Amino acid sequence: MTASPDTPSVGGPAQVRGPARGTRLRRAAARATPLFLLAPALALLAWLMVFPAADAVRLAFTDWDGFSDPKWIGLDNFKDLLSDDRFTQALTHNLIIIAVLPIWIAVPYSLAWGLHRKIPGWRFFRFAFFLPVVLSPVVIGVYYGMFLDPNGPFNGLLRAIGLGGLAREWTNEPGIALPVVIVIVIWWTLGIGVLIFLSALSNLDGELEDAARVDGASRWQIQRHVIFWQMRPVIQFWAIIIVILSFTSFFPLIYTLTEGGPGFATATVDFYLYQEAFDNGNLGYASAVAVALVVVIGSVSGLAVALLRGRRKAIR
Amino acid sequence: MSTQTVAGRARWAPGSAARIGRRGRRVAVWLIFATLAASTIYPLFFLLSTALRTSEDYRRAPGGLPHELTFDNVQRAFSEMDIGRLALNSLLVVVPAVLLLTVLSCLAAYALVHFEFPLRRTTLAIVAALMALPPAAIVIPIFKAILDVNLLNNRLGLILAYAALQLPFSIFLLASFMRAVPGELLKAAMLDGAGPLRTLWSVVLPLVRPGLLTLMTLNFLFLWNEFLYSLVLLQREPERTMMVGIGQFQGHFDQSLGIVSAGLMMSMIPPLLIFFFFQRDLARGLTTGALK
Amino acid sequence: MRNWLKLVCTLALVGALGAFASGCGGSDGDQGGGGGSAGPPNPATVKGKIVVWDVFYKSFPSYTKAVPKLDEAFKRKYPNVEVEHVAQPFGEYAALQQAAFTGRQGPDVMMMPNAGSLRQFQKGLEELNDRITPEQQEQLTGWETVTPGYQVEGPHYGVPIAQTDFMFYFNKKLFRKAGLPTDFQPKSWEDLRDAGLKLKAAGIQPFTGGNKEGYESQWWWHMAWPTVNTKEQAIALAEGKLPFTDPAVARTFEPELMMQKAGLFEKDRFTTPFFNDGYLRFADGKGAMVLGGSTNTAYWGDFNKALGQENVGMFLPPGSKYVSMQPEWSWSIPKFAKNKDAAWAYIDFMAGKEATRMLFDLTGELPSRKDVPLPADAPPQARQIRDWYRDKPTFIATDVLVPSQVTQTMNTEAKEVLQGRRSLEDMLKAVQATFDKVNR
């Protein structure tokens, strides 16, 4: 185990490998370093993400059932998309889910605030709020299927506390199923938000708060102008996460919980995409749905960022 | 622990004259917190109790406690669902994928944050954009790519697909941690003669440890729960993973709530363990990710 | 954070990349048809390994126990063939099949759970006429499910196994209690409704069941079809010549609606987490009638065991012009299969006398072969069904004829109609729209 002279050791004398000995070769090597570091990741991404994505885009312009070769049909799929009620419905559901973004931010924020102020039992609460994040969509889907069953525990609870009139078929009424799904996904993702906000709150600059208090600012004013302002980047981060999650990651949950039903009342775009590709065998059309979906995600996240940034400027 | 709790109490209830209204409000807030916590704890209790009772018993009082305990469901979950093998199969895919992800994203994030090179920002933007790809949209192309290299029904195929799917997010998260490492530290290390890899290993990584743990935890949770890719890329029974196995069992004609619950309960054990162990790192990690 | 604004630009870039890549489209080219030799395969020369995809294995309990025994019997005859029998998830089977055909890689023998599935993937399946023997053609029933145009003659894309469909079962004890005859055979749907109301008045749950997935509606629909329409109309429907919006089609949904309106179903019919709960309740004696299977699962075998052979009665849909009946499944060989000779040997064996008899003994699947009689000790219910299937005109159930995408839309929509949230016309329009989309 003798250290060879080539192996640099952290504690070694700096002079041995000082910048003075830098040659053109060395500089070239240094320039190539990031490339070497990046190469494995980029290769994997190119192979299994970028090319497949490009393939999906290509297929979006074809009619393809998976058997014969894809047939180029230009923009036909996209034209169909515009007049496709199912797609519009699914997209509307996605946008409704996104429209409750303020609640999605406010709920974990308030909870984090409570934990930050050390509400009795906060450690336990912090643990409990994160639990759903650990559960798989299959677990959540099956659990809520049983829990919200007309004869299940939830209606039982309502009846027990004298609210039996409210008992209903929660996942089977068109007006109610989507809100129920939304509540469940908020409940599911809550924990991440709480943790993010909680740690951000504990990193806040306390001096600003104290200064504001000395200036006679009310609690609400402090909350709004001092704390919220500092929290804005974190809120932005959370908003982006939700936008992406809601468009790309809720399909497994909806699939197990409602299968898009009742009717089509809880189907989202990624659910519809799966249905078109695998149940209906319209692979080309499904790719067009995917392309449209990605464009929507891009616009919505861009919009969310722009909105949050714009408000900051206004306050300043 | 105890001092912290005391301090916590003190902060929660400032010594000033406690008005009844404020107190009432505080109780109301606490009740809301407690209700919410109950809603998150209850699923575990519910599934556990359903797993340990007969179907008839369940129908009598779905939400309540079992009348008599039976381990029949758990036993059948082992014998009929072969839940032990499913768990092992999942681990055999998820653990290597998480490790691979950690290595690749470390290298990539390190390069993207601490080195200057042409198209650096563009690369970052592409990585970020890839996060927005819905996994369901590219199953078929990825399936074909894996087929082309003959890795269908091979765990390695799914491991690579998983690594690719989670890589954009992983790089993105880790990059935000790396930004917190001061460049001077790196320069100093390099001046000391350390190569880039050595610097990464002995200077950067120790500083981003919470980030690494966060990343590994989140990737583990996500991949453990993944369904679609596992279904399509591992089509044989010997390699079948947990979520697909449970999904398959759910379609059974003789299934009972009890066995499904028992299976679900056991499928949650590894993620729960991971969560227990890394809870605190996760809390720290997520913030750094958000703030940078 | 600012990078997010670049997102849209990058997406455009990815899009451009895609358009660029379109030039280099991959065409794998079909593998040649590979016509097999006629006649039964020779056990001495057939060898190698085959992969079998099966959705009923590890799904139906009795069939699950039967599979290893059937495979063993096959192995005794073909000792040089190794069988890997893979149980696939029922709910996601179509996705797996789609992936297999798209990637042109998968099993050698593929179970086609119904005619709809066969039609959906027909383009990827091997035509088997060269391999099917005249003896098989003669002895087996159900060829119309595996042949385009629902004909007995023509290109066959699979080999039909067993005979099955649905039956109305009733609990004679509960019927007696409500003052109804124990040899109940309704003359009309109104008859059935009145019997249900009588049961209800006697405090007995008339029907049990579960319809969360809408399957039960699908079954009710196809039970009602032959009471209104002919089999030619069924074919016309499947071929798009008879639109779903036709009044003749609308009338086939009325029987279930009638029962629903009369309140004969259970309250939680549309939300029961697991649809087999209804069968369990019927077997428990908690309900007087159930729409069950005619073989294998939730059928006379299960009910006889739970309620006693003498208490299980059956009736056909009232006034049927023909009886719905089809194979339980068919075995097919995908074009991409690597070992087609061994795959055929497997199918040939499973469609043979020995395997057919074993299948009935082990699972209660009624033999699809004319030359396999029921054993002497078979219960009267099995004999009755076999007689009905033999003596009455039969044809594939209508829901099996139409593409599975269409029945899927129908299932989700029917639940809405039954709950009074959507009109029958709207539903039929939606179903027709799906149909048009599939056939465009």
> If classified by CATH, what would the architecture of the largest domain in chain B be?
Orthogonal Bundle
General form of chain B: globular
Q: How is the largest sheet of chain C built, in terms of strand order?
A: 2-1-3-10-4
- Which fold name corresponds to the CATH topology of the largest domain in chain B? MetI-like fold
Number of helices of chain C: 19
SSE series of chain C: HEHEHEHHEEHHEHHHHHEHEEEHHHEHHH
Number of domains of chain C: 2
Q: Please tally the β strands of chain C and state the result.
A: 11
Biggest sheet statistics of chain B: none
Structural class per helix/strand content of chain B? mainly alpha
Keywords (chain C): Signal
Organism (chain C): Patulibacter medicamentivorans
Protein name (chain C): Extracellular solute-binding protein family 1
Pfam families (chain C): SBP_bac_1
Task: Walk me through the structure.
Chain A has 316 residues and is mainly alpha-helical. Chain A has a domain at 86-137 and 169-315: MetI-like (MetI-like fold, Orthogonal Bundle), CATH 1.10.3720. Chain A has 13 helices and 2 strands; from the N terminus they run αββαααααααααααα. Chain A has helices at 24-59, 76-82, 85-99, 101-116, 122-134, 137-147, 153-160, 174-202, 206-214, 219-248, 251-257, 269-279, 283-315, and strands spanning 62-63, 71-72. In chain A, strands 1-2 form a two-stranded antiparallel sheet. The longest helix of chain A is centred in the N-terminal third of the chain and has 36 residues, at 24-59. Chain A starts with 23 loop residues before the first helix and ends with a helix. The radius of gyration of chain B is 24 Å and the shape is globular. In chain B, α2 packs across α14. Chain B has 2 domains: 18-70; 80-291, MetI-like (MetI-like fold). Chain B has helices at residues 2-12, 20-51, 55-60, 72-79, 83-114, 120-130, 139-148, 155-178, 183-191, 196-207, 209-225, 228-233, 242-250, 257-267, 269-291. With 292 residues, chain B is mainly α. Chain C has 440 residues and is an alpha/beta fold. Chain C has 2 domains: 48-164 and 326-371, Periplasmic binding protein-like II (D-Maltodextrin-Binding Protein, domain 2), CATH 3.40.190.10; 166-324 and 397-438, D-Maltodextrin-Binding Protein, domain 2. Chain C is 44% helix and 11% strand. Chain C contains 19 helices and 11 strands. Chain C has helices at 3-21, 61-77, 93-103, 115-120, 134-139, 172-177, 189-201, 215-228, 231-238, 247-250, 254-261, 277-283, 300-307, 340-350, 353-363, 380-391, 398-401, 404-418, 424-438; strands at residues 48-54, 81-87, 109-112, 159-161, 166-171, 205-207, 287-293, 312-315, 323-324, 329-332, 394-395. Chain C has a 5-stranded mixed beta sheet with strand order 2-1-3-10-4. Chain C has a 4-stranded mixed beta sheet with strand order 6-7-5-8. In chain C, strands 9-11 form a two-stranded parallel ribbon. In chain C, α2 links the parallel β1 and β2. The longest helix of chain C is centred in the N-terminal third of the chain and has 19 residues, at 3-21. The two termini of chain C are 45 Å apart. Mean pLDDT of chain C is 86; it is low at 1-36. The interface between A and B is large, with 102 and 99 residues.
